[in-house]
Every structure is written in structure tokens, then in C-alpha cells.
Amino acid sequence: MAENLVALNDDNFQEEVIDSDLPVLVDFWAPWCGPCRAIAPHVEAMATEYAGRLKVGKVNVDDSPNTAMQFRITSIPTLLVFREGKVVDQIMGAKPKPALVSAVEKHLS
Q: Full-prediction pTM beyond 0.90?
């Protein structure tokens, strides 16, 4: 996993995402999901490019079903943008990197 990418799970989600001082981009994914693998390089690049301004993490929905259920993740990849503990944006499906950047940019101060 990329250096600035946080591995999120049922146990650390509250602390890493809900309680985060920074906005957080969360990628809900699974290793068997082709579209998830397709966008992974974009998500990893954003973790590096936005270091210090945005936290970027990934939730494996197979390993953390409670978190996936809590946010009603019904298809993957789904990316949620959190700010001050609340979902402020959602991206469903494999989108090109500019779409991810634009969803995030409007929530950075």
C-alpha cells in the first residue's frame, strides 16, 4: 500500500475517518473487484499528492463488513468524502482521476 494510504477497517474507522481533523477520501473496495483495481493507482496517487491536506484510506469490504454496511455500500468501488465526520460526497464506480480530484477539491479548505 502507498506510503500515505491508510488501511481502514471496522476497528480503526471511527478514529481515522470520523474523528479526523482533515477531510478523508475513503475507497470501499475488494481484491476480486476489477474496477476497484482499475482506480487503485488514482487513489494511491491522490494519497501522495494531497498529503497533509487530505487523508486517503481504503476499506476492504470483505474484511470490514460492518463499516460497509454502516455506510450502505451496495456496489464497489464506492468512494466517500468525509469532512468533520460526515459524508459530504460520493463517487460510485470506476471514474477517471479528474472526477475523483474534482469531488475532493471542493471539500478542501
A: yes
